[in-house]
Amino acid sequence: MKQRGPGGDRPLTRRPQSEGAANRSEPGPTKPKIHKAAANDQALDSVIDADKREALKLAPVSHETEARLDRYIALLREWQAKTNLVAPSTLPQLWTRHIADSLQLVKLAPSAKRWADLGSGGGFPGVVLACAMAGTPGASVHLVERIAKKAAFLREALRVTTSPGVVHLAEIGDNVDRITGPVDCVTARALAPLHQLIGFAEPLMRQGAKALFLKGQDVEAELTEAAKYWNIQPQLHKSRTGDGWIVELMSVERRG
Residues 214, 238: contact at Cβ < 8 Å? Predict the structure, then answer.
């Protein structure tokens, strides 16, 4: 098995790795309510703007796509105060940690127009891909999400960004019954171990889709486990935005 990264192909070693109640007649001053990680705190604005500049160096986009992504981030920060869409600690790095990380998939599947994103959550990578695909004839992104609040957010994100896509409120394993028409590429991020992801994606891959799964540093252990259940020939791409990897699969076959 080889990994393909910025430095080219080379062999990959397979080694797993209640506020206090004051006197009732004289209540004390009410403490201000803190929103989740201060998602709408203006103090974050300059930090996020700087992070955006770095992210767009890693993954340049058109002005039109940038404007869509700006609207998406504004909406996400608004909703984050009431619905946990991303880990609060990652808010200052929304652009590099989430936007650029998602955008790098486009270069790995430049001809793909029809995407399926399993377990879309806060919209990474699904909404980002839809923003990037807007304006491309025939483009569409299927976003599969089992949590109703997050599915509602995803629909609103597609609306405010005028991006092509459809949201399926469903258990991830039910995606085949809800996705109609051909799919060029299926993806998932922070959803499940690799051997389970392959099981979710296999029906779509059997119809011609390739898979791009964003994984973390423990990718080797996940590949070892997946090989117990599936015949796979993975291609690994080093993430440009951190220590993770992207697992590319062109085909899969269940063992036994």
Answer: no
